[in-house]
Fold PIN domain-containing protein.
Amino acid sequence: MTQPRDVCLVFDTTAVTSWVRGSLAVGETLAEIDDEGGAVLIPLWCLVQAGDQTGMVDRERLDLLLKHPATFLIVDDGEDWDSLVALQQMTGAHDRASAALMALHMDVDVMTSKPHWYASVKNGQKTLLIED
């Protein structure tokens, strides 16, 4: 029987694209979370945006990320539409709004290479910088 995992982090679009490009920081963070029995959420919109930005040139890497035992692809709840509107106004994009909302709901950070995108969310205190 599989043990439930505690959510530890949310990957935004930049984290997913960094994974596709072979980021050691993203890979090591994911491995550490997996070793501790934790989970990483990937908002659907971040996956879609990352696929678009990378031109789907390495679909295998995206599939590997999605099949990883510590990652979970998540969609937004329609009842959160007004929160998503507010967060989109703060972050400038729907994928970022989705990542921010999930991080706020789960009380975890968003892994990103662009922390300034989230500066207006909890005074910028909800990010983990990708340092490659």
Observations:
- The first strand starts at residue 6 and ends at 11.
- The chain has a mean pLDDT of 96.
